[in-house]
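Workshop exercise sheet. Pairs work together: one partner reads the sequence aloud, the other fills in the structure field after running the prediction. Swap roles for the next sheet.
Pair: D.N. / O.F.
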Amino acid sequence: MTDLLHTLPDFPTKQYTHLIPSLEKCLITTTDLLTLDPLEVAKRAHLPLLDVRRLANHVLASLQTQLGVVDRTEALRKHEDSPKLDDASSLKASGRTVSKEWSAITTLDPLLDAALGGGIPTTYVTEVTGESGAGKTQFLLSLLLTAQLPPPHGLSRPTVYISTEHPLPTSRLAQLLRSNPHLSSLPASSKPSLTRIFSIQTPDLESQDHILAYQLPVLLARHSIGLIVIDSIAANYRAERSSSSTSGAALGLRSTQLVQLGHQLRSLAREHKCAIVVSNQVADRFAPIPSSSPPQRPPGSSPPSVHSLSSPPHPDSSQNMQSLDSAIMHPPPFPQPQSQSWTPQYPILTLDHQQNFFTGWSSGPHNDHNNQNQNLKTPSLGLVWTNQIACRIALVKEQQRMYGNSEEGDSGEGNADWTPRQWKRYMKVVFASWTPATGSEERGTEFKIWSGGLRTVGQGE
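Structure field:
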C-alpha cells in the first residue's frame, strides 16, 4: 500500500492506520486491493474481512470520483452502504432483509415441506439423490409445476428442465395437473402450464458445458426463470468414463471441471435469484470388512527361520544321517506368511466413517444387520461435488417384506422366509444450510408416489 498516496494523494488514511502496515508488510499494492478477492487479501494480511472490504470499497469510490466516472455524492453513498465491523445494527438489518427475501418452492405436502424447512429455496443449489425408482424424477416434475404457483407456494415464474437422459415426460406432467387436488382446483389464470416449462436436452458433456455457459444465462435473463432442473447431473460424466480416466491427471482434471460447474451454478442462482435442483445417481458402497489381527509373538522372541528348519545336519554322525533321511521323507512345513492388517490411528477421521454423514446412507438400526453392506449407497461424483452443493436430499428405497404373518421392512431376520410385497420410500435431508438434517439413526419421512405427485404416507388416504 505504499503506492496508495501516489495514486490517491487526498485519500484519508488516518481511519485505516490499523490496516495499512499489515498490507505493506505483505507487499499488497493498491492494484491488488482492487483486483483480488477481499477474502484472499484478508487471509494474506491476517486482517478482518469486513475491514478489508470497507477499505477496498472506499479506495474504489475515491478512484471513481477522481476519474469522473461517478460524482462525489454517489461515490460516498456507495461507501457508506458498505458493511462496517462495528455497526451491529447493519448486521441485524441484513438479517431481516434476508428473512424478508426468503422464497421457496413447495412440494404441496405439509410434512415434506416441514422436513425441508419450508420447501426448496432460491439462490441455492440443491441435489436430490437416490437409486433408480426412488422417485427423483417425480420429485423434480412436481417442482416444475409448483414453481409457477403464486407465493407462498411458488415463485410465479417459468421453469427450465435440462435433461441428460430422456426427454421431458409431458404426459406425466399433464397427469399431475389433472390428479393433484390443489393444482386442478386453481383458476386458469394462476394454474401452471406446460407452455411455461422450457425443455433442453444435453446428449453429451460438451453440449452440456456449452448450454450451461452460454445458452442458459441468456434464457434466464429473457424469461425470468425461477427454477432450473438438471436431470441428472452425473449422467454425462459417467457416460464418458473410460479406463484412461482413472489416472491421476484425469481425476485431477475431472475435479477441476466439477469445481467450475459448481461455481457456475451457484453464480447463476445468486445472480438471477432462482432455485437450481439437480438429480444425482448413486453407486453401491461396501463397508470395509474387519480383519483379525495377526497372532502376537511373546516379547523378545524372534520369528522362526526357514534356514533353521531346512538346513541339513552334519554328515559325520550316524544319528544325524538318520535325521537327514527323516527330514527328506517328511519335510517340515514351510512357514506361512502372516496376514498384515492396517488399522488407522484415528478411525473416526477416515472416509469410510465420515461419508456416513454426507452420503445419506449409514449403518443405522433400520438396516438389515445380515445384509447391511448391500443397502449402502454413495452419490456419484464424489466428495468434490458434495462440496459444491448447499443441500443434499436422499430418497431411500427399501423393500417391504412378509415374515410369517407380519409385514416388516429390511430390518427383519435375514434367515426367515420372506416374500417381496412393495417398496417403501423415505426422504432424508442429509445436510442443508437452512434446516436441520435428518438424524443418521432415523429413517426419514415416508412418502408414496401417486397420480397426483408425492405425498407422505397417511396424507390424503
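Discussion prompt: The first strand starts at residue 104 and ends at 105. What would you look at next?
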